[in-house]
Amino acid sequence: MDTKLDIKNLSKSFGELTVLDGISLTLPKGENISVLGRSGVGKSVLIKCIIRLIDADTGEIFVNGKDILEAEGREEVDKIREGIGFLFQGGALYDSMTVRNNVAFPLRRRKKKRDESVDELVDQALESVGLKESGDKFPSDLSGGMVKRVALARTIVRKPGIILYDEPTTGLDPVTGREIVDLIIKIQEEYDTSSVIVTHDLECARRTSNDIKLLHEGKFYAEGSFDELRQSEEEHVKRFFTDYNQQNNN
Fold first, then answer.
1. For the chain, how far is it from start to end, CA to CA, in angstroms?
2. What is the Cα–Cα distance from 143 to 145, expressed in whole angstroms?
3. What is the pLDDT of residues 220-247, one digit of tens each?
């Protein structure tokens, strides 16, 4: 099995609060894993540890075979990060930049001058998310769904093999949320990505993921396919799925 991401015994505490308590996760090439959990359980902390926006206390995180926690210096960390795309929960666009310049930013920060290859990659990324004609707009001109699309275009413009999604449907109406889920599926097929999707959106997890892990009190309390978890008799898992089951039982 070709493994894109391998996390071993990862722990992270803030003061006396243990957020991640020795968790492990293996992401095979071409698959998506969703990490489910209620707000505040540490889902976003997990993916920020993966990309070293937050330093873990203990554990190992192998990205394409290299332990990012052992990387020394900004240059070595950035080299490993090049294989990872990160979709921030709020989009994190630069308000003073146009859509096109936001998408081009991760490419141009590594280049000293403009060149045709950057423009071609930006066009391709914007076309993939359905915004090729919106390049001259600014973030203030965009709807919430369009902001997510631009952020996703910026994520895929470097064609990373791994994408980390931080609550990709949060703050969106149901229709727009479904459109973003459709894009996640499309991007996986078009760019052959492997992804970790942290979410509390059960429908997003159901549609996008090969495997699901339920994070609770710092540990993966349960894991399996969506249907396996949905039918679980474990009390905490049943509570998590109660509303979904009531809405979707036929």
1. 38
2. 5
3. 989 999 999 998 888 888 888 876 666 6
